[in-house]
Amino acid sequence: MEEKAMGMNQSFWRASAVRSGYPELSEDVEADVVVAGGGISGVLAAYSLAEKGRSVALIEALKMGSGTTGGTTGKLTAQHGLIYHDLLERHGEQTARQYFEANQEGRQLIESLVRKHGIDCDFRKTDAYVISRSEDGIGKLKKEAEAYSRLGIPGRMTKSSPPGFESAAALVMEDQAEFHAMNFLHGILQELESMGVQLYEGTRYMEAEQNGDRLVVRTNQPYTVTCSQIVLATLFPVEDPESFYSNTMKPFTSHLTSFTGGDIEWGNGMYITEDSPTRTFRTSEAEDGRLVWIIGGETHPTGDGSSASGRYREIRTFAKEAFGLTDMQTYWSEHDLVTPDKRPYIGPLEKGGSSIYVMTGYGKWGLAASACAARVIAGLITGEDHPCKELFDPHRQLPEDTGNQNGGNDKDEGKKNESTTVSRIAAELEDGQAIRMERDGKPVGIYKDEDGSTHILDLSCTHLGCEVAWNDGDRTWDCPCHGSVFDSTGNVLAGPAKTPLKKLER
Ligand SMILES: Cc1cc2nc3c(=O)[nH]c(=O)nc-3n(C[C@H](O)[C@H](O)[C@H](O)COP(=O)(O)OP(=O)(O)OC[C@H]3O[C@@H](n4cnc5c(N)ncnc54)[C@H](O)[C@@H]3O)c2cc1C
Ligand code: FES
Predict the structure, then answer these.
(1) Angle, CA of 421, 422 and 425, to the nearest 5°
(2) Domain-embedded: residue 436
(3) CB–CB of 311/332 below 8 Å?
(4) Residue 464: which domain range?
(5) Are residues 440 and 486 in the same domain?
(6) Is 244 among the domain residues?
(7) What CATH number is given to the structural domain containing 226?
(8) Do both 355 and 212 map to the same domain?
(9) Which one, 1, 120, 146, 298, has the greatest CB density within 10 A?
(10) How far apart are CA 77 and CA 56, in angstroms?
């Protein structure tokens, strides 16, 4: 990777966030509800529950916002690419309308929280556009526009293009919003503190066991949280009875970049292309007031072994050709989980269950949806109804073609099968590089760090054993099965895995 030209490998949002730190769990504590996961789902669920008078302990394995919420495009919208025509065709008018209303409710709730608590998070009202660069896409946009009109969604076909960008047609959804999700998260966390919510970082949910009518949550710390209910907002649920979530959700990764500079006068609008390769873009503001461009795309199945550095190069080329941007500041990738019917799973972990709940499967559109989801979860726990309970119920009827995930090891015959010794391979690696080889028929990863030290890892994911693949752009080991991400030396960056990759001797 040409480091200088690419900038820093970190999310613009995480790098520019104004954040507070929280302690690790350092004694046994109690709460009505334990929320695991300090992303937007967990934080807003904690808020909704605390509002309803429940005592809450929010435990985050790493730092608040270190999951997908910290690496989004920050679009708060019910426009999720082209989805309404498909929802109408497959599920009918009621479901399509409810999906729109759920996301509108979430967006409005976030706006009201920003205003109520005066959260400084660059919240801006703006329109959302799907654009087609070729004549071929116009038909698809028209069908979606018809769905808008049938469902009463405020929007229409337009010729309007982002400044400097050639497009054949666009579909606008009016009155949407964009924000700095990390600063919003930290604004809400401050409110949670004043509402008496217990906040812990560096505290990973490991397991829960029943103790009478209470649940005891064990963590990676030598302490427990005793509670009556648990909300798993850990992106992929870290409890998965009968592998329902493993079997029905797929992880997809996208890549984002931030740029400054350029001489284009940017107006209103955030954009995503309908045609391939997908490009998504919007603007924001740097601390010094300069315009920042957030540009991304290149979605692919997580851990498919494709070159992430090549994907960043593609985005860089696009930014230059479309907007004349050359000053790339940062680059990063994140993943999210997609369900068979593209609706999130919000509700009881197990059918009919009333003690453990999940918030997952947003399919890369969870910012507005999570706010609505938080209300659904709070309603389920406090016995109040919410109109979206059935829409998001994880145990709803799913389409036949759920695209079953293989919970075991997905063998890729095309992968390199090195037969030479670890020492010889390590000697040939450059600092910061990694390679896969096989030893005794098992996949082994060799990573040489910046200091020249070699790390040898068993590439079997510690979740269910799929083989992780090297991501050369972000220098992580990514699991194709359910989206666990490990750093270059094997530590868990994203679950469902809870323990590091096994280190091996030379
Ligand atoms: C590249 C990209 C761009 C996106 N852009 C948009 C967008 O513009 N608009 C939009 O609406 N959506 C967008 N999304 C989707 C959206 O970001 C996600 O749906 C949403 O952030 C999910 O939030 P979450 O809180 O559920 O998960 P996360 O933010 O991942 O939070 C989960 C948290 O749980 C923690 N955790 C994991 N395991 C444990 C454990 N065992 N114990 C305790 N804590 C644990 C993690 O460290 C993490 O902090 C995008 C997604 C991607 C991948
Ligand atoms: S096997 Fe499930 S995330 Fe790796």
Answers:
(1) 90
(2) yes
(3) no
(4) 422-494
(5) yes
(6) yes
(7) 3.50.50.60
(8) yes
(9) 298
(10) 28
Q: Whose CA is nearest to atom 3 of ligand 2?
A: 482
Q: Worst-scoring range by mean pLDDT, 26-40, 193-207, 232-246, 409-423?
A: 409-423
pLDDT at residue 43 is higher than 50: yes
Q: What is the CATH number of the domain that holds 426?
A: 2.102.10.10
- Mean per-residue pLDDT of the chain: 91
Q: Are both 381 and 427 inside the same structural domain?
A: no
Number of separate domains in the chain: 2
Query: In which band, very low, low, confident or very high, does the pLDDT at 414 lie, cut at 50, 70 and 90?
Result: very low
Q: Which of 67, 9, 11, 10 is nearest to 39 (CA)?
A: 67
Report residues whose beta carbon is within 6 angstroms of any ligand 1 atom: 36-42, 59-62, 66-69, 71-75, 204-205, 233-235, 238, 254, 256, 334-336, 359, 362, 364-368, 370, 495, 498
Q: Within this chain, do residues 488 and 444 fall inside the same structural domain, yes or no? A: yes
DSSP label of 398: P
From the list 329, 320, 282, 255, the residue with the least C-alpha distance to 16 is: 329
At residue 175 the predicted structure's pLDDT band, cuts being 50, 70 and 90, is very high
User: Residue 409: its pLDDT value, please?
Assistant: 29
Backbone dihedral angles phi then psi of residue 307, each to the nearest 5 degrees: -80, 110
The answer to whether position 103 is within a domain reads no
Ligand 2 pocket, residues with Cβ under 6 angstroms: 461, 463-466, 479, 481-484, 496-497
pLDDT tens for residues 490-503?
Answer: 999 998 999 999 99
Among residues 372, 392, 412, the one where a domain terminates is: 392
Q: What span, in angstroms and rounded, lies between the C-alpha atoms of 282 and 176?
A: 13
Atom from ligand 1 closest to the CA of residue 360: 26
- Tens digit of each residue's pLDDT (9 = 90 or more) over 289-344: 889 999 999 999 999 988 899 999 999 999 999 999 999 999 999 999 999 999 99
Same domain, 189 and 63: yes
